[in-house]
């Protein structure tokens, strides 16, 4: 797939898409084989458990609110204006413990199977199913701590 020229309006997703993934609203804004970018609304008290992208670098540009990112035992706090860098192969978890909704722009490069994954995860609530589907799309969740 090739990047097409144009503008994705603020309130719109590509092809009218928006997904509910782990309680977050993800709205795709740009998709090509080289990159995938989406807008995210991340409510307070929600999170993405620790996982690894073995084939993609990932980043988050914070627009509003605060997120915590854990790289193993290292914990970092990101605020509006900050950019979070998550290199491929490095386990990371993303948490909103701020008391407010956070909004941000996520991206991955290359896009690989993530766009397809979000379509399959839309409204999936069973953690085991989420882990299984994700593994089929090159995202590996770590086992929960004991």
UniProtKB/TrEMBL annotation:
SUPFAM superfamilies: RmlC-like cupins. It comes from the Bacteria. InterPro entries: Cupin_2 (IPR013096), Flavonoid_dioxygenase-like (IPR052538), RmlC-like_jellyroll (IPR014710), RmlC_Cupin_sf (IPR011051). This is Cupin. Residues 40-105 form the Cupin type-2 domain. PANTHER family: LIGAND BINDING DOMAIN PROTEIN, PUTATIVE (AFU_ORTHOLOGUE AFUA_6G14370)-RELATED, QUERCETIN 2,3-DIOXYGENASE-RELATED.
